[in-house]
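FAQ: What does the model actually see?

It sees only this:
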Amino acid sequence: MSNKFDIVIIGSGNGGFGVYAIAAEAGKSIAFVESLDFGGTCPNRGCTPKKVLVAAAQSLETIDNAAVHGIDVGPTKLDWAKLIDRETDMVSGIPAGMQGLAEKRGTVFHGEAKFVGPNSVEVGGTILEADNIVIATDPKPRDLPIPGADLMITSDEVLSERTLPGEVVFIGGGVIAHDGVSIDVDEYLRTPPTRRSGWSATR
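And it is asked to produce this:
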C-alpha cells in the first residue's frame, strides 16, 4: 500500500511541529510518523515534566526563606512520591493532545520509518511517498563504554522513580541535566549539613 504526500515528517517533537506549522499554513499534504509519544522528548520526557520538579524545589526555597520577610512557618517536608505522581499526571494528556492537533491538518502513522527509496519510507508495511521527507527525530541517551554503565539510569527513569535518591551524579551538561542539577542543589542546600549526602554533578 502506498500513500503520496507533499511532506513526510518523521518525528513529532518541536522540530517536527515547527515544519508542520509552516507546511499546514501553505496548504501542503502532510504525513506525521511517530514511534513513541506524540510531542517528543521536551513535553513528555524532558523540559515540561522537569519544570514541575524545578517548581517544587523553588517553592521549598521560597518557604524556607520566609523568615527573611518576617513570616514564621513550620518545617517543610518534600513528599517525592506525590511530586512524581503530580508530574506524571500533568503530562499524561500531552501525547493525545499533540496527536489530535496533527490529525487536524495531516495523516498520522505510528511506527518506525525506514527509507526504501530517495523519496519514500516504509512504516509498518505502508509506503509513504513525498517530494520532501523531514527527519526530525529526538536524540536518545548513548550507551557509555565505561565500567558500571549497566547500573545507570536515564532521565526517563528519573521521572518515574518514586523514591528520592540519596546521591546523584549527572553525566552530561545539556538542558535536562541542568534542570536536574537545579533541583538537586536546591534540595541539597536546604538539608542540614549533618544530613547532607554529597550530591554531585559531573559536566
